[in-house]
Amino acid sequence: MGETDGHPIHPVVDGSAAEPRGDPGAICSVRGVRGRLQAAGLRPSRRRGQNFLCHPGILAAVVEAADLHPSDVVLEIGAGLGALTVELAATGAAVVAVEIDRALCGLLEATLSANPNVHLVCGDILRLDRDEMGAVGPAGTFKVVANLPYCLTSPILERMLLEWTAMSMAVIMVQEEVARRMVAPPGGDGYGSLTVLVHYYARAELLRLVPASAFWPRPDVRSAIVRLTRHTCPPVDVDPGRFFSVVRAAFGQRRKQLRNSLTGPPLGLSGSQARDLLGQAGIDGTRRAESMSLTEFAALAQLLPRTGYAV
After folding, report:
1. Which domain CATH number covers 134?
2. Of 183, 211, 230, the domain-final residue
3. What is the DSSP code string of 136-156?
4. 26: alpha, beta or left? (left if phi > 0; alpha if psi -120 to 50)
5. What global pTM score does this model have?
6. Any idea what DSSP says for residue 9?
7. What's the domain count of the chain?
8. In-domain check, residue 235
9. pLDDT tens by residue, 60-110
10. Which residues contact 24 (CB under 8 A, 6 or more apart)?
11. Where are the beta strands (DSSP E) in the chain?
12. Residue 177's domain spans which residues?
């Protein structure tokens, strides 16, 4: 599908026609998942967005995309019943599996007892610090693999990109709409502040669409597998605080033209200041935020100190 703003997109494969071949185990089939939960007196939690992957082929595609080796450390977010955890452990990598549901943690302990390279953590990924996450420490890099709950995708992404600077790669399952936003080019459908955040920190690839039928319970929308590979250096040389102040202001009133949206928070420029800034950067003030590339946002941010505007 070519290049978009320096972010190649792999050909997308829609798995809706593909069916699982056989039953690789009780933790990766609808019958197996339902049976294990019923035996434990449990039901999927809508509040926590629990949709269990029941498609061995897609499970294998996620593991393959992470390109794991025995020397790797991988953080799994939302271990569920352990289907993906077991496959990750089979690569020989050290696996830190995080699950917030304490009832599922009890089942996971039994499932993972034969995998000494798995460290199970029962807790909230948005609250855990590095010490609590055990093997994922500050000494070396690690990879993230996750089937993210739709309701928590944005805050988890922000933590991954902003806080976990040692994360070298992430392979995540997200709602298709979010995946499209993550890889969108300037001017494309869904291009917004999330797109800019992702592209600033990583190369984003949409690898595969995942049908709702691959999960139980079945969600209302399709999902997609996305791979994020962290940049060694951001693609634009600019102070990130100033850069994202411009981005937040521009998208804070995204229906407005830039000469008007830049007057909003956090910049709070006057109309004349906004026009002056845009003129110095050579950017048409009648454009809107969704048409702006990272290079153009950076050009505006770099001009802020010279023009004396507060950030």
Report:
1. 3.40.50.150
2. 230
3. --TTS-EEEEEE--GGGHHHH
4. alpha
5. 0.87
6. -
7. 2
8. no
9. 999 999 999 999 999 999 999 999 999 999 999 999 999 999 999 999 999
10. 56
11. 3-4, 7-8, 13-14, 52-53, 73-77, 94-99, 118-122, 142-147, 167-175, 202-210, 215-216, 223-230
12. 3-230
